[in-house]
From TrEMBL:
Record domain SsuA/THI5-like: where: 41-237
Pfam families for this protein: NMT1
Keywords: Signal
PANTHER family reported in the protein's UniProt record: ALIPHATIC SULFONATES-BINDING PROTEIN-RELATED (PTHR30024), TAURINE-BINDING PERIPLASMIC PROTEIN (PTHR30024:SF47)
InterPro entries: SsuA/THI5
Gene3D superfamilies: Periplasmic binding protein-like II
Protein name (Swiss-Prot/TrEMBL): ABC transporter substrate-binding protein
UniProt lineage: Bacteria, Pseudomonadati, Pseudomonadota, Alphaproteobacteria, Hyphomicrobiales
Alphabetized CDD domains for the sequence: PBP2_NrtA_SsuA_CpmA_like
Any single biological process term in GO: alkanesulfonate transmembrane transport
Protein family according to the UniProt entry: Belongs to the bacterial solute-binding protein SsuA/TauA family.
GO cellular component: periplasmic space
Compartment(s) where it occurs, according to its Swiss-Prot or TrEMBL record: Periplasm
Length: 330
């Protein structure tokens, strides 16, 4: 009888644990498909979400802006986005919040041009007077602005064409546009479609002007109502970061998902900084983007203090609870 009771008690405990784990259901919306989201992709592929008791459903959208809209509509608990959609949301009075900044780069977004179209890829100023496509309201548009600053040009020196990423390579190959600004993978597609007639603009010196931050966004409602889901999700991201920084073979985990050879992933992400945490440059970069958006007439200035507004959308508590050394905000 004691054995039976012990077995029943164990079953009850296991059943309770299973129920608890089943309650950690989460939905993550990605802003596109690619190695930009390497950290959460690795967390999925290596089973780190499951180890934390998270049953994760995912969906992919054309951009971080679209993924964030899924979050704000309530159809997702989290979204993987760059910092630019977060800035535009803040200036529109919306309140998605960042609970993780898990990687950064300055060189993955590229500006591609036809090498037979009169633009010199080695001369940034040769973009003057050209039609450059990107997705308006994303980090692509912001990168163009910072690249023009690097080139000594102004926003009025080029014409921005709002175009879906899936159409950029074809539009450039046909000559509908002179160039586009988007991911390295999109540039690679354009190079294949054009038979090698597409070149990348030089990015020498871009680090001073541009850094993109990859974020895990959520809402204050999710933080309040699902704190265990938030904690478990962040724990999975920390595990994925460790895997990436200690295992050279990590690209194999995501190669099939993004249809890219592991060696190409390793090369493309060689300049990424994979580190979950928040530092002051993140805040400063968001303020810089917001000031650009306001000056360009893309958004209205907020009624209150701009840095204070953007800082309020960074919820560092869950990260600090797990790794206090990873939060260095002033």
């Amino acid at each position: 009888m004691l054995a039976g009771l012990a077995g029943a008690s164990a079953a009850a405990l296991l059943g309770g644990r299973a129920v608890a784990e089943q309650r950690l259901n989460g939905v993550l919306a990605y802003g596109g498909v690619g190695y930009t989201w390497a950290v959460p992709y690795v967390a999925e592929a290596a089973g780190y979400f499951k180890k934390q008791g998270v049953e994760l459903s995912t969906s992919s959208f054309e951009s971080g802006r679209d993924a964030m809209q899924a979050l704000l509509s309530g159809s997702a608990d989290f979204s993987a986005s760059t910092d630019t959609p977060l800035v535009f949301a803040a200036l529109s009075g919306l309140r998605p919040v960042a609970i993780a900044n898990y990687s950064r780069y300055s060189r993955d977004m590229k500006i591609a041009v036809r090498n037979d179209g009169g633009v010199d890829p080695k001369t940034p100023a040769s973009l003057k007077g050209r039609r450059i496509a990107t997705r308006v309201g994303t980090s692509g548009q912001y990168l163009i602005a910072k690249y023009l600053e690097l080139a000594g040009l102004s926003a009025s020196d080029v014409t921005i064409v709002d175009l879906a990423p899936n159409n950029m390579a074809t539009a450039l190959t046909r000559g509908d546009i002179d160039g586009f600004c988007w991911s390295s993978q999109t540039v690679a597609v354009a190079q294949r479609q054009s038979g090698g007639k597409v070149a990348e603009m030089t990015f020498d010196g871009i680090e001073r002007y541009f850094q993109s931050h990859q974020l895990l966004l959520t809402t204050e409602a999710v933080i309040d109502k699902k704190p265990e889901l938030v904690r478990a999700t962040l724990s999975a991201l920390f595990a994925a970061e460790e895997r990436i920084t200690t295992d050279r073979e990590w690209p194999q985990l995501i190669a099939e998902r993004i249809k890219t050879p592991p060696a190409d992933i390793a090369q493309a992400t060689s300049t990424f900084a994979f580190k979950v945490g928040f530092d002051q440059r993140f805040i400063d970069d968001m303020v810089s983007q917001a000031e650009w958006a306001i000056a360009a007439g893309l958004a209205k200035p907020p009624k209150g203090d701009l840095p204070k507004l953007l800082r309020s959308l960074v919820v560092e508590g869950p990260t600090k609870a797990l790794r206090p050394d990873r939060v260095t905000l002033t």
